[in-house]
Amino acid sequence: MASGTSSGKASEKPTLSAYPAWLESAHQVKIKEEQTRYTATGDAAKRVIEQSEFWQAYKRQRRELDDQYQISSRGYLLFASAEDDHLHIKSWSSFIEKSWRKNIVNNPNWPEAPEGDWVLPDRWYELTNDIIRTTLVVKYLDGVEVLLNGLRDIASDCGRAFESSLEARDEGYYAAHSYTYHDVPVPQKDWDVVDKSLRFEVQITTQLQEVIRRLTHEEYDKRRKSIPDATKKWQWDYSGESFTPNYLGHILHYMEGLIMEVRNRDDGR
């Protein structure tokens, strides 16, 4: 098991800006070389997933899923837009930031390794669940589980394992996350290529939640790049930057539930 060396044993947690230097000094990670390998891995993963039977099947069945929803809901549309099948590669800066949160920010064992050991290049691709991701936006709250079940059925038809969760966070974030695994050629330190099983993340959210997520992204990005003060609770800091957008997320989720109640009442359900 790897352990921190001089810098890794320091009591003060490194900030995000100091984290690359900490990786190099504590774990001999050559950042520039790893960034090059990450770019190659991301490009390969996107190609593999775009061409996968699972994703091609979703693109073929998207219209059918929408038609089935319209029939069951008496004319309401499932999707918020006509096209939403673009895959995105997580940026290198976001990838490094995620390993920083796992190794440093959310590590209760600091300055020792987090549970399960340090997240380092020998396994950080497998431990990152959204190197390739996309977001599918539905119009109404019930559409989240409808689409999630549709993706589960497609994965089953393709003989592919499927994992999912319905996220509901204190910060007012509501969405479904689903994952399928795909074998991707990953270059090693000697540039030999080894196939590794990487997760493809599909987030499903509603039109209203997507709006609030876009409006609050800058504040969210700022918050997650700082080491939180465990003594402060944003729920009581009514003048803080997190209070209004976080509670707005909760309020919108409640309103979406009310919309479904009125819609179902009008439909005689």
Structural topology:
Blueprint (H helix, E strand, L loop, with lengths): L18 H9 L3 H20 L2 H20 L15 E2 L2 H14 L26 E7 L3 H16 L4 E7 L5 E14 L5 E14 H18 L18 H24 L3
What does this structure look like?
By secondary structure, this protein is of the alpha+beta class. The protein has one domain: Beta Polymerase, domain 2. The protein is built from 7 helices and 5 strands. It has helices at residues 19-27, 31-50, 53-72, 92-105, 142-157, 207-224, 243-266; strands spanning 88-89, 132-138, 162-168, 174-187, 193-206. A 5-stranded mixed β-sheet has the order 1-2-5-4-3. A hairpin with a 5-residue loop joins strand 3 and strand 4. Helix 3 packs across helix 5 (142-157) and helix 6 runs antiparallel to helix 7. The radius of gyration is 21 Å and the shape is flat. The relative contact order is 0.13.
How would you describe this structure in keywords?
269 residues; 45% helix; alpha+beta; Beta Polymerase, domain 2; 5-stranded mixed beta sheet; 7 helices
The percentage of residues in β strands lies in 15-25%
CATH T-level topology: Beta Polymerase, domain 2
Name of the top-level CATH class: Alpha Beta
- Give the fraction of residues assigned to helices: 40-55%
